[in-house]
Amino acid sequence: MPSPSLVWFRDDLRLTDNPALRAALDRDEPIVALYVLDEESDGVRLIGGAARWWLHGSLASLAERLEERGSTLVLRRGKAAEVVPAVAAEVHAGAVFWNRRYGGVEREIDAGIKEKLRNDGVTVASFAANLLYEPWTVRTQADKPYGVYSPFARAVQKHPAPRPPMPEARKVPGFDGRVDGDDLGAWDLLPTKPDWAGGLRETWEPGEPAAKARLKEFLDEDLGDYSTYRDEFAGGATSNLSPRLRWGELSPYQVWHDTIEHRGSGEHAKSAGGFLSELVWREFAWHVTYHSPDIATVNWRRNFDAFPWPKVNRAHLETWQQGKTGVAVVDAGMRQLWHTGVMHNRVRMVTASFLIKNLLIDWRHGEQWFWDCLVDADAASNPFNWQWVAGSGADAAPYFRVFNPETQRKKFDSHDRYVREWAPEYLGENPPEPMVDLGETRKRALDAYAQVRHGG
């Protein structure tokens, strides 16, 4: 009687460059593919509405691809610490494989499962799959984690090049026994009352095939223009790969090596280098989060705890969320976010700066809104980047940097293409008035920051 391998899929919803799946294939036994929707374990951060929509589509795609190759995706809902050992026992698994996660709570859950399974005599192995460098491998000469990007990036360059990606699994031998699983539709990941996901459906097709197609399209058509046009709000030079990486439809190894192959020379090479630096920034965010797992709720720079946040003005917060601030770029960005589930990266910084520094609203409120609205809401990058703008994070923007939305508009949307698409009323004869005075609120923010800077 064969003892099947159990492959526990998490943020790695792909068949290409999936070390856990490859380990199971190498074992040459039937494979049980499992995904667990864990919304019950203590400390697990529940994913937001837009992310739930994406997860549904990506799981549906993965299930279809596994079926084409001879296997089935088993869906279970509950505490992972209970579900994974239970399924392993049901199928009499001889081995359980997964790719590593780096959040604090997730690491604790995985360690507990690994110990339990090994005590039950099951072979267990986990693999590096979703980061180019494990968070404990890049450290300062004093053997401490990095807190500044530039030296981190230089240190990464001294490490061995990322391994090449593994080939796609063309055949996945299925398990003949009975394994009960949930129906994906019963998980209610898709919004219905109301159905607000029309813009997401217009914009995206979740799943590994679409992810691979987008990577190829970007490298073939857009990479050469990346350095020149990446900051243009309406430009087409951005990769749009962030949700693909967040859900693991692509691995960073695939993106890294495919980019190297397309690097070329001259301006093309410069663009490739700039794009690869964004992958390293993503690594940096995860390395910081690994060592500071409470980054979504606690200031990384603890002296920032003394920042004199006023009582939250709920009306101001909602006006910002709805894209009705009277500031063209801010409103355009917030509307793009709601419609498509993403926002141009520079606009993310502008909208975040406006909330934090012009409205003096705690960065955590903005981070939570983005967490709910972004299809690429990433447990490291989202809070890490919000803290960067706030000045409370690692390698933070200097306290005196307050993005001026009008200056940013003139520089990066000089023909108003972005504003015309998302906030066209600002191009009329009587555009909306800003909800606050940008100059006065900038000064107020600098005064508040000075209190922290000088110790209160």
From TrEMBL:
<dbReference type="GO" id="GO:0003904">
    <property type="term" value="F:deoxyribodipyrimidine photo-lyase activity"/>
</dbReference>
<dbReference type="Pfam" id="PF00875">
    <property type="entry name" value="DNA_photolyase"/>
</dbReference>
<feature type="binding site">
    <location>
        <begin position="238"/>
        <end position="242"/>
    </location>
    <ligand>
        <name>FAD</name>
    </ligand>
</feature>
<dbReference type="GO" id="GO:0009416">
    <property type="term" value="P:response to light stimulus"/>
</dbReference>
<feature type="binding site">
    <location>
        <begin position="376"/>
        <end position="378"/>
    </location>
    <ligand>
        <name>FAD</name>
    </ligand>
</feature>
<dbReference type="InterPro" id="IPR002081">
    <property type="entry name" value="Cryptochrome/DNA_photolyase_1"/>
</dbReference>
<keyword id="KW-0285">Flavoprotein</keyword>
<protein>
    <submittedName>
        <fullName>Deoxyribodipyrimidine photo-lyase</fullName>
        <ecNumber>4.1.99.3</ecNumber>
    </submittedName>
</protein>
<feature type="binding site">
    <location>
        <position position="275"/>
    </location>
    <ligand>
        <name>FAD</name>
    </ligand>
</feature>
<dbReference type="GO" id="GO:0006139">
    <property type="term" value="P:nucleobase-containing compound metabolic process"/>
</dbReference>
<dbReference type="Pfam" id="PF03441">
    <property type="entry name" value="FAD_binding_7"/>
</dbReference>
<feature type="site" description="Electron transfer via tryptophanyl radical">
    <location>
        <position position="386"/>
    </location>
</feature>
<feature type="site" description="Electron transfer via tryptophanyl radical">
    <location>
        <position position="363"/>
    </location>
</feature>
<dbReference type="InterPro" id="IPR018394">
    <property type="entry name" value="DNA_photolyase_1_CS_C"/>
</dbReference>
<feature type="domain" description="Photolyase/cryptochrome alpha/beta">
    <location>
        <begin position="3"/>
        <end position="132"/>
    </location>
</feature>
<dbReference type="GO" id="GO:0003677">
    <property type="term" value="F:DNA binding"/>
</dbReference>
<comment type="similarity">
    <text>Belongs to the DNA photolyase family.</text>
</comment>
<keyword id="KW-0157">Chromophore</keyword>
<dbReference type="InterPro" id="IPR005101">
    <property type="entry name" value="Cryptochr/Photolyase_FAD-bd"/>
</dbReference>
<feature type="site" description="Electron transfer via tryptophanyl radical">
    <location>
        <position position="309"/>
    </location>
</feature>
<dbReference type="InterPro" id="IPR036134">
    <property type="entry name" value="Crypto/Photolyase_FAD-like_sf"/>
</dbReference>
<keyword id="KW-0274">FAD</keyword>
<dbReference type="InterPro" id="IPR014729">
    <property type="entry name" value="Rossmann-like_a/b/a_fold"/>
</dbReference>
<feature type="binding site">
    <location>
        <position position="226"/>
    </location>
    <ligand>
        <name>FAD</name>
    </ligand>
</feature>
<dbReference type="InterPro" id="IPR006050">
    <property type="entry name" value="DNA_photolyase_N"/>
</dbReference>
<dbReference type="InterPro" id="IPR036155">
    <property type="entry name" value="Crypto/Photolyase_N_sf"/>
</dbReference>
<dbReference type="GO" id="GO:0071949">
    <property type="term" value="F:FAD binding"/>
</dbReference>
<dbReference type="GO" id="GO:0006950">
    <property type="term" value="P:response to stress"/>
</dbReference>
<keyword id="KW-0456">Lyase</keyword>
